[in-house]
Amino acid sequence: MAKMINKTLVLTYIYLLIYVLLSSGVILYNKWVLSPKYFNFPLPITLTMIHMGFSGFVAFLLIRVFKVVSPVKMTFEIYVTCVVPISAFFASSLWFGNTAYLHISVAFIQMLKALMPVATFIMAIVCGTDNARCDVFMNMLLVSVGVVISSYGEINFNIIGTVYQVMGIFAEALRLVLTQVLLQKKGLTLNPVTSLYYIAPCSFIFLSLPWYVLEKPNIEVSQIQFNFWIFFSNALCALALNFSIFLVIGRTGAVTMRVAGVLKDWILIALSTVIFPESTITGLNIIGYAIALCGVVMYNYIKIKDVKATQPITDSLPDRITKDWKEKRSSDGESPRGGVELNDEEAPLITSSRLSHIGRTQLGSHTAV
Q1: Name one Pfam family in it (predicted).
Q2: Rounded distance, CA 137 to CA 45, Å?
């Protein structure tokens, strides 16, 4: 029994490492593809539509052709009232987030993403899914001050890129709140494959309008290079990230995932300065981000404490592993333990009706899937 628990723990941390590497890799890959200084494919909507089309196609094959995953019971009413609005904000957050890569550095984008809890808190209050609290408000104020300081210290500050990124963050925050208000209240549980199957095609359609207006003319008049293997591998990495998250959410808890998210952000900031030499980090950047990160950590602590207060009996990871080992796994594989929803900017489609609070979803924000 002890050997099995140790083996499972090792496997869990291997999955966590894969998630961190894939998430960081996809973000850096997208930046490299979009940047005019490198691969020079400055069409973020087109890139996002490639991701959506590829992901939706693979999900269709898995569900309808190979029947590896069973589709959920989706009525026309649920699709129109739930999936469509969620897909609209999902597509918007992808569009805005990817466009930011054209104007600001990966490091600065990660620093701005510290605003995600602030945006989610505001949207949750507006939509009535959370209450205004003094302790959370003070944390949000601390995060905001940290981001302002970090922005002030940014050498290559670009107002267009900053606005796009902030808009993407708020669009993603609203998507999260809508997921709780609409999907979860309908009792609909989606795993990564079924999420892609239903949401990716709808997001593709929403993105087609801004693509036709903003990018189609540029494709016609300019010499845009298209390398099949570059875009195929890029979309494949994003898809692999979705599946790695599916593996991770079933083996860990909220605290571990938040630590992994913070670790990923620091890795991205460090790697981006090495891979993209034009990305310069100043002392004021680090100070501001550290202040914002303190606010995020305290916010996560408050939310975890709130969750534990509603769950009198909380098993430790070894206890949960032992319990799960004794119990048979469900046939459909949809059993995210610990009620964790990953909000990763590259794979934000994971949703679960088992979630009870929007505050559990603070791992990142959003740019491309």
Answers
A1: TPT
A2: 35
And the tokens for 78? 């649920």
Q: How far apart are CA 334 and CA 250, in angstroms?
A: 8
- Domain-located, residue 292: yes
- Burial label, 55 (beta-carbon count in 10 A; 0-12, 13-18, 19+): buried
Chain segment 4-33, per-residue pLDDT in tens: 667 777 888 888 889 899 999 999 999 999
d(CA 173, CA 122): 9
Q: How many independent structural domains does the chain possess?
A: 1
* Cβ neighbours of 223 (radius 10 Å): 6
The mean pLDDT value of the chain amounts to 81
Please give the Cα distance from 236 to 34 (Å, whole number): 17
- Provide CB contacts within 8 A for 54, sequence distance 6+: 232, 235, 236, 239
Q: Are 165 and 104 in contact (CB under 8 A)?
A: yes
Count of alpha carbons within 13 angstroms of residue 171, beta-carbon side: 24
Domain assignment present for residue 338? The answer is: no
Write down the pTM of the prediction. Answer: 0.81
